[in-house]
Amino acid sequence: MLLLFGKAGKADRLQAPRNPASGSATALPASTRTMPPNLLGYDMSSELLPVATLGVPRIGRRRELKFALESYWAGKSSADDLLNTAKALRAASWREQAERGVTRIPSNDFSLYDHVLDTAVMVGALPAAYGWTDGPVSLDTYFAMARGGEGGLTALEMTKWFDTNYHYMVPELVHGQNFTLASTKPIDEFLEAKALGIHTRPVLLGPVTFLKLAKARDGDFEPMTLLKTLMPVYVELLGRLKEAGADWVQIDEPTLVLDLTAEEREAFRSAYGALAVADTPEILVATYFGPLGDNLDTAVSLPVGGLHVDCVRAPEQLEQVVTKAPSNWVLSLGVIDGRNIWRTDLAALRERLENTLRGTSFVGIELAPSSSLLHVPIDLDLETALDPELKSWLAFAVQKMSELWILASALSRGEKSVWTDWQATADALQTRAISTRVHDASVAARTAAVDTAMEKRVSPFAERSALQHDRLKLPFFPTTTIGSFPQTAEVRKARAAHARGEMNDADYAAFLRARTAETIRWQEEIGLDVLVHGEFERNDMVQYFGERLSGFAFTKHAWVQSYGSRYVRPPIIFGDVSRPAPMTVGWWRYAQSCTDKPMKGMLTGPVTILNWSFVRDDLPRADVCRQIALAIRDEVLDLEKAGAAMIQIDEAALREGLPLRKSDWQTYLDWAVESFRLTSSGVRDETQIHTHMCYSEFNDIIESIAAMDADVISIETSRSRMELLDAFREFDYPNEIGPGVYDIHSPRVPTVVEMVDLLEHARKRLADRQIWVNPDCGLKTRKWDEVRPALVNMVAAAARLRAEAVVAA
């Protein structure tokens, strides 16, 4: 029989048997009270298995945090206003979790911008440029690190959090870095919850993961060498948390699922050895996003009180961990998907857990999502307009909490204790399995007919390039943008009015044409060489296409944080994908009619559509991606037929989908590259194919980037000062590249001198003939008063380089 609590602490008993899943407050059926113990050996009157969440969305049901942040940044509200909103969101979240049956409620999972940035501030790792020396870190300093500040102060580099679409701020450390406890945020928020009568388990980013994610700002040293200097800050913080009343702390160490060196494994033993001899709360080390694999022995050797493992991304590790973990541990099982939105097969999961856990004797077992629920929308109940059948197949964050409670009840007291909810789940799964909306025989047949000839351009790049240059007649260092222009309040207001039926189709189209024409004229006036239409008709680079493809569904309120106040509503791919009709050709034709300069056709690539969607879980991702590729291929060919000389197929998220273990990379890269080539390779040689990729390290996948065979690739490089181009230089990449010369994620306007300096760095790595000049990314989220001077400066920077190149020639 499993011992549920012991060292794990006191659990919340089900006193007035309330069902958090349905919100009802009804007693258990009499038959349940007299049922014999279930297979795990629990009596029906016993306490439930503890339920944890690891972390929850921060943004608020109605995006309250976004609006509070942007109001503060705009100077329309005070710091107190922002902090009060944040406090109210935390309180609401803690109460929600308690009401949904969560018994291990996290604190310090909230952040005003990013939890990795919070950790850098907490340990006093602020670069000297931000002017902090000691004492509390001001909001302005904090946001300067995230977004840039006055006087040309740039933001920290930003990159993807493991293989998610969440971005974190990369800590910058120097040789001999001094660490100090500069923020008591984890303590403050624990006490804040305590004052509300809610006992929480604080969440910290682990010291080894923090150093693994950081970069050395100066000198050639490994941040991990700073571990011994960092650990006293964690010891002090954990000691103060214990004094405040915390009995357990969750320390996130997701790097335990990565390929680690022997030195990095030793760093884990050293770090947690230092904590083991200190007076701290019990520690639950949380891993997620993949299997522990060859790091399992390291993990189970740590002198801690428990371990969380991801049993969704790596279901095979459940048995391995149960076999090897110390019996005096609390084992947290991540059995509900924290990164996708499909309802869980609770019956199958219950059976598996019973078979695996029968006869074990851990001090405690907890049920949890596979990872923090940060990566899923908050509440499905907000989606009042969503198709009821499809809605019954889904579970967002609060529904996942309920699933955990239902599962805990079934494991502890039998499924009859939650029979209504148990049966509803089974019915929904059965309906989805047989739904005719999911499968399309014609799509399956077309996908099966794909051959390798469809994935290759007619001629190699050198031959295509000559034809394209002859057709386009562009100067050296051609200037362009990535695609979108500011989506102003006026544009958003018109879109909303049209959606509500307050603006008819004709008036809305006329409005969009006017904005498009204005933007094209302005681009001509400042001297851009290759134009875009601005994408004012598009709500989002993935959603716009998904709404015009079969097999997709969309929500109204299912927002997920990407970074800071930037949230997205990922589409839901629930069925086979095809393109019923052209999606962008009409807008491209109109835009090209407004100018004699080249107008790029703008599309989102299949891998990005896949990686930025909630993808069906009943078909391999590679198969879904090929379906999308064929649909976008149809659009590419229609654009070319309409006269487009340049077509940009953005694959911003290609690297984001890369598996965390190198041994799994090639399989993913093979089908991802094949999908891009399937999309792009049907065009003639003289048609120039562009692509764009967001913040990524390219060194280790440069061969696959080259295999995509795009004529021009634009990448985000300004925050790294063109360091990312080293991969292209060392590989001797032959095609053309647009290294971003200014950071669009910051409101600051870079000078001509700054951009020229960055381009000179690029020239050290690339030939002049290869270099395009463009921003880091699309301009949708910026304001016109930021974009206008920045692009004017960008054009001037390109002109200066052209003059230098002519003189040098």
Structure overview:
This protein is of the alpha/beta class and 809 residues long. The protein has 28 helices and 21 strands. Helix 2 packs antiparallel against helix 3, helix 18 packs antiparallel against helix 19 and helix 27 packs across helix 28. The N terminus is likely disordered.
Helix/strand/pairing class, anyone? alpha/beta
Number of helices: 28
Q: Give the neighbour order of strands across the main sheet.
A: 1-5-7-8-9-10-11
Radius of gyration: 27 Å
Number of strands: 21
Alpha-carbon distance between the two ends? 82 Å
Low-confidence stretches: 1-19, 23-45
Q: Mean pLDDT across all residues, rounded? A: 91
Largest sheet: 7 strands, parallel
Helix content: 40-55%
Strand content: 5-15%
Shape: globular
Give me a quick take on this structure:
The chain is of the alpha/beta class and 809 residues long.
Features:
28 helices, seven-stranded parallel sheet, five-stranded parallel sheet, disordered N terminus, 40% helix, 10% strand, alpha/beta, 809 residues
List the helices and strands and how they pair.
Blueprint: H1 30-33, H2 64-73, H3 79-99, E1 105-107, H4 115-122, H5 139-147, E2 158-160, E3 167-169, E4 172-173, H6 185-195, E5 200-205, H7 207-213, E6 215-216, H8 227-244, E7 248-252, H9 262-276, E8 282-286, H10 296-300, E9 306-310, H11 317-324, E10 330-336, H12 346-357, E11 364-369, H13 388-391, H14 397-413, H15 419-434, H16 441-448, H17 461-472, H18 489-499, H19 505-526, H20 543-546, E12 552-553, E13 560-563, E14 566-568, E15 572-573, H21 585-593, E16 601-604, H22 606-611, E17 614-615, H23 621-642, E18 646-650, H24 665-680, E19 688-693, H25 702-708, E20 712-715, H26 726-731, E21 736-739, H27 752-763, H28 784-808
Parallel strand pairs: 1-5, 4-6, 5-7, 7-8, 8-9, 9-10, 10-11, 15-17, 16-18, 18-19, 19-20, 20-21
Antiparallel strand pairs: 2-3, 12-15, 13-14
